[in-house]
Design brief:
mainly beta; Tachylectin-2, Chain A; five-stranded antiparallel sheet; four-stranded antiparallel sheet; globular
Length: about 240
């Protein structure tokens, strides 16, 4: 049965849930009434099915160079100081090709009761930018041993070129530089491993979830991240949940 709170919304994907002040905030990508893909939050006090409020618009991408841009793939990052940032991908719509201009952006969030907004007076930061290259998307940030790691997907999610790369910076305000490829086809992670979500379970345990392709379509796997000389190493562990 359709959820009436989502009337008018379509093309919904990339949900990301965090808890702040006793409430659960879900951020996701959607199109409202056939419009551009933008980022919307919904709020719940229980995180139970059908308990979330009707979404409200948080942000859309600014167009540039005469192109129509979209804002997709939201995630959040909490700094050591306790500030929460929304992280997302901006880029132009070009459905027939993964090559184009793309940015990974971030902006600080403010929470007040059951509402969330971009923090007034703070900039929308550009963490990463590629021009006339394969897509960069699905950003996720974690902090480890005083460094900040940005996990992103590159390539075309429709084939085996999709992969997961990692960039590193001293802080979310620093300059992100390429560190390594973390997962690619042929490395035991499945075909086209991307869309990774990284979760710090404890100070000594980091989990990673990603999707890959097989003959039936896209499937999901979960594994672990180990750290070697401040460099993440992914491993697929079937027993990990």
């Amino acid at each position: 049965m359709p959820d009436p709170c989502l009337d008018g919304y379509s093309k919904i994907w990339a949900p990301h849930v965090i808890k702040r002040g006793g409430r659960f905030f879900m951020f996701f990508t959607a199109s409202l009434n056939g419009g551009l893909h933008c980022i919307y939050p919904a709020v719940s006090s229980t995180n139970a099915p059908r308990s979330y409020s009707r979404p409200t618009l948080l942000l859309c991408a600014a167009n540039r160079k005469g192109e129509t841009w979209e804002a997709i793939d939201p995630s959040t990052y909490e700094t050591a100081a306790g500030n929460t940032y929304l992280v997302w991908r901006s880029g132009h719509i070009q459905p027939d090709s993964p090559v184009g201009d793309y940015q990974i952006r971030a902006a600080m969030l403010s929470f007040s009761g059951s509402s969330v907004s971009l923090t007034t007076g703070t900039p929308r930061m550009k963490l990463l930018e590629v021009e006339n290259e394969t897509v960069v998307e699905a950003p996720d940030i974690v902090r480890y041993d005083g460094k900040v790691y940005l996990f992103v997907s590159r390539g075309d999610f429709r084939d085996s070129s999709y992969r997961t790369d990692v960039y590193i910076a001293d802080s979310i305000h620093g300059e992100f530089r390429f560190l390594k490829n973390l997962m690619s086809s042929g490395q035991g992670f499945g075909s086209g491993p991307g869309g990774a979500e990284v979760l710090e379970v404890s100070s000594t345990s980091t989990r990673i979830a990603w999707h890959f392709r097989n003959a039936s379509g896209r499937r999901t796997r979960v594994g672990v991240i180990s750290w070697t000389k401040t460099s993440p190493v992914a491993s697929y562990v079937p027993s990990v949940v």
